[in-house]
């Protein structure tokens, strides 16, 4: 039976199934309306990221034409948002440990809306880079903050499925971004059409910003700050049910170890802990994610460019607005079809991540990615329908295995392997380090594609995917089924 006066930890309250009047526990832990609201708002951030970042692949040819960009400037435009994510994940996301999860959850969406407005109205290429960088800062902050807001508010039993289903909105956003780009291009034969692509995101971002004011702060964060009463109030809002359950909340505070002055001065703090006591967790969260982002953003952003290059869509002699838009439409169709398999992959990840474990899915996914890229590379030695079939088969396999494996699991693991007091910093650092891979790919891909060709690039990504599988195995820490307090 449930005892009204028995103190327990925050996670024990969240993980506890309600009981019937006769003392029989319910067979599952029902999510409250507030828990679902937090899930939805966390999902929105990933949706916007996928939408904006991958829509860039459709918008880029028009941006290139509008501002008359060189290959290196085109690379800067591709890398600007990713560079912002790199700095935002650590500099802003890490603040979630000190100023609070909810506060940064709101700040990031405010920054996203303001800078996205700047992108739409950018008067020059330089200002466009500044605003894209700002959008990236906001999206980078969302990596750790959204994960923490969600994972610290839901039952441990469902954490993997719920966090990944929220993360899956990145794939939905990617597909939506491509479809929006296609729809706008279909009705607007104008070099400025790319501005409308980004403008579409503004209204929903404002709605999400407003709704984020009306959720509670993470009770785990309050406990870390020794604010017991605030934690109990937050938990009561989070677990509000009708009829009320639990009827009262009395949080058990963790026992604080007494340390001497010398011990306190010698003990590392903040980011130092990531590279001392939690070095293995930091490496597991960061290195595979970096290797995964090399291929994810290389293939994801530049799928339209690759399709255009292989099938001769670009007409270098007649580079008119109409020709570029027509080529962009053809490439967007192929990209939208391929992005469907990102959704299929994340659905499989949601189903199996708590059953098979994060590590196993990540390793299998990395191997599957390299196999898909190998098929795509072999397609270059064929002609006609054979080339088209093998290329699409390779990209389909890559998108599915990546979404099921490393793209989903690296995000999930990074928010689970660190203790609460440095969880924002740990997840933020991992996301920042990962985005180094994305930036390298985004900036160098257009240049390398023109200099080396598709074959060499695909071969390099095959090697990095296999390396990701090996590193995951060597550093493995399985988090499936464990509550955050235990971890």
Automatic annotation (TrEMBL):
Superkingdom: Bacteria
GO cellular component, one term: membrane
One Pfam entry name: Sugar_tr
The entry's keywords: Membrane, Transmembrane, Transmembrane helix, Transport
Localization per Swiss-Prot or TrEMBL: Membrane
Any GO MF annotation of the entry: transmembrane transporter activity
Protein name: MFS transporter
Chain ranges passing through the membrane: 38-63, 75-93, 105-122, 162-184, 196-215, 294-314, 334-352, 364-382, 388-405, 426-450, 456-473
Major facilitator superfamily (MFS) profile domain location: 38-480
PANTHER family attached to this UniProt entry: SYNAPTIC VESICLE GLYCOPROTEIN 2
Membrane topology (UniProt): Multi-pass membrane protein
InterPro entries xref list: MFS_dom, MFS_sugar_transport-like, MFS_trans_sf
Family: Belongs to the major facilitator superfamily. Sugar transporter (TC 2.A.1.1) family.
Organism ancestry: Bacteria, Pseudomonadati, Pseudomonadota, Gammaproteobacteria, Vibrionales
